[in-house]
Structures are given as C-alpha cells and as structure tokens.
Design brief:
This protein is an alpha/beta fold. It has helices at residues 3-12, 27-43, 54-63, 100-108, 140-149, 184-192, and strands spanning 20-23, 48-51, 76-81, 85-86, 92-93, 110-118, 131-135, 154-156, 172-176, 197-200, 202-203, 209-214, 217-221. It has two domains: 3-123 and 204-217, Rossmann fold; 131-199, ACT domain (Alpha-Beta Plaits). Strand 4 (85-86) and strand 5 (92-93) form a beta hairpin. The longest helix is centred in the N-terminal third of the chain and has 17 residues, at 27-43. The two termini are 24 Å apart. Bound molecules: ribulose-5-phosphate. Residues 24-29, 81-84, 94-100, 103 line the site of ribulose-5-phosphate.
C-alpha cells in the first residue's frame, strides 16, 4: 500500500454515521474518498458529503456517496483533504490541484479539518512549494506585474495543452515561487487585500489533525 492510500484509509476511520463530511481534492484525498465510498457501500455508513471540486464530485457520485451542495448544509462536521506543504507550526499551502478556493470555503465551515499527507509534505518553513493565487481574468496582468515588481517570481499556471489553467470557477492561477515564506500571516493579509485576487493557498490556523504517512504506518498529530 502506498503512503497516500495508507493515510486516506486512516482518515476515513474518523468519519462517523450521520456526519456531514467535506471531501477534499487531489491524489491523496482520492484514496480517502475511495475508503469513505467503500464504507458507505459495504458497511451502510450514512453520511452527507460536501465536495471541494468538480473532480471530487464526479468521483463521489460514482461511488454512491450522498452529496449536498455547500449552500444546503448548516455546517460541516469534518473535512479531510490533502496539502502541498505543512510547516512545523501546522500552517499549510494548498492549491497544487487548483481547488483551494472551494477547499478553503469548505474548511472554514468545518468543526474539524484533517490533512492527510505523505511525509515528503512536512517542511520547516513554507514556501518551497509555489504558492497558488487564484485571480479573476479581468486585470490579471496588472496583478501579475505587481507580483513581479515585488520580486515574488510569478508564473501563470498552464494546463497540459499549454493554455491558461482554468479553475472550477473559471479563474486563472498565478503561482508565486517564493522559496521561503517567513511571515505567512503577513503575506496572507496582504494577498487578501488585493482586488482581483479571489483566494490564495495559504491555509493558516485551520487544521485540527494531521495524518502523516510514514514507512512505519500512519502517524496522527493533533
Ligand atoms: C488541491 C489541493 C491538494 O489537496 C493538494 O495539492 C495536495 O494534493 P496531492 O494529494 O495530490 O499531493 O490543495 O487544490
């Protein structure tokens, strides 16, 4: 079993009957969705899923997991999602899969947020992974130039056909190649203040549990 599958399976154990469950996006979250789907099908687990991307919606529907739109739930009991980097103080970068807008909205409504990662995602400080910033198309070159002026080494994300990558909301993503982020809260506040920025991939003070895949098995950190 690979490490992603190991943590996906472990995380599914935290899902209980009757819960509203935020279903994350990405190659690690994929295994958690599989494991939750298996429990729904084989054990009669009764849950409602709230998905964080069109990809996860398709996957969950195929597995027969009952879903609701985020607009139709009062709150979410637990959200399980992957992450691109997690620092020593449990701050995170997400959005490598371009889904960080919906992922953050779902996480913000959740009583508990569990991140599932293999141990390669644990870092001392954030920033080696390019920080995704979702921007509206209108005026995106101005935002890009501002990042250039600030020496934030921006690049527009492209898809496999070398076209601008489009998010589920039809926006673009600018990745910032910062190498090291010394003050994530200050950076998040500044990005939040920019007109044209829809959402960035800094997920700060939001995780309640991290499940790390190691050669010796899954480690649960709270
Ligand atoms: C998608 C995400 C993913 O959770 C993150 O990129 C981790 O993905 P993976 O498990 O495939 O490494 O934030 O927007």
């Amino acid at each position: 079993m690979n490490l992603k599958e190991m943590v996906g399976n472990k995380a599914a154990e935290f899902v209980k009957d009757g819960m509203v469950v935020g279903l994350g996006t990405g190659s690690t979250a994929y295994y958690m969705v599989e494991a939750v789907g298996k429990r729904v099908k084989e054990d009669g687990l009764s849950i409602t899923g709230v998905t964080t991307s069109h990809r996860t919606t398709e996957h969950a529907e195929k597995l027969g997991i009952p879903l609701k739109d985020i607009n139709d739930v009062d709150k979410i009991d637990v959200t399980i999602d992957g992450a691109d980097e997690i620092s020593d103080d449990y701050q995170g970068i997400k959005g490598g899969g371009g889904a960080h807008l919906f992922e953050k909205m779902v996480a913000n409504q959740s009583d508990e947020v569990i991140w599932i990662v293999d141990n390669s995602k644990l870092v001392h400080k954030l920033g080696a992974f390019p920080l995704p910033v979702e921007v509206v198309k209108f005026g995106c070159q101005q935002v890009f130039r501002l990042f250039e002026e600030k020496d934030m080494k921006p690049s527009f994300r492209k898809d496999d056909s070398d076209e601008f990558y489009l998010t589920d909301s039809g926006n673009y993503i600018i990745d910032l190649h910062l190498e090291q982020i010394d003050n994530p809260h200050e950076l998040a506040k500044w990005l939040d203040s920019l007109t044209g920025v829809v959402e960035h991939g800094l997920f700060l003070d939001c995780v309640t549990k991290v499940i790390v895949g190691t050669e010796n098995g899954p480690e649960v950190k709270e």
